[in-house]
Amino acid sequence: MASQLSGGRVRMPEHNIGLRGDQYIQAVLNGNPITCKTMFRMEVPAFRYVCDILRGALIMDPTERVSVNESLGMFCLLVGHAQGQRIVGDRFQHSSKTINRHVKMVMRALHHLGRTVIRRTNTDRVHPYIAGNPHNYPWFEKCLGAMDGTMIDATAPSRLSNAYRNHRGRIAQNVLCLCDFNMKFTYVYTGWEGTSHDARVFPDALSRRRNQFLWPPQGYYYLVDFAFPCIEKFMPPYPRERYHRSDRYSGRQF
């Protein structure tokens, strides 16, 4: 008999529903592309590419039971949907201990990979986005990109929930990011509570040596918004000037 009687109760396996881990991953990757974007927050080519990098750089090695694809899927499902380990374990048919181990493994691997992927913009030549647009060149010839803070949903201990609850009522972190004209991140600073303002996060990112802020070379600068001070190497908008198209249209009503 598949089940056994023990102490008057029927003992049944906990994870015996649907496709097991790697089978589920393959079904998602070979199925409707929308499913991969919905479940793992990445399109299929991006998911496969990240897996190949993790294997090729020898950052992660598959175990006998869990492949790199499956480990990344666990991580994306848990982080992308703020799911608990038991929920992810039921989806992949693994114990919470296995989920915990592989999620941490992927987290460390991606952190290691970030040192290679997140890097300074090349300043050897003017970026084509600037050089090829007469509205931008030569006015923004020395601009390397833009910096801003963004709210990223997070999970915080109950005793700290009020500090992380932003003005929209969400539990979040205020993450400061630098982005170049290739839409690639060149610097990311995380950890600040959702209640914190960009004007408070900004000086902290610059002043702490361990943050390793990417200062632009001499003569270059980043674009920032009104929340940031107008200091050397950072250019905010000119005060009391309409820049956005919606502002220009609304101005016609006066």
TrEMBL record:
InterPro entries: DUF8040, HARBI1-like, HARBI1_dom. Keywords: Hydrolase, Metal-binding, Nuclease, Nucleus. Residues 19-110 form the DUF8040 domain. GO terms for cellular component: nucleus. It is found in: Nucleus. Pfam families: DDE_Tnp_4, DUF8040. One of its GO terms (molecular function) is nuclease activity. Residues 147-247 form the DDE Tnp4 domain. Its cofactor is a divalent metal cation. Its main location: nucleus. Belongs to the HARBI1 family. This is Protein ALP1-like.
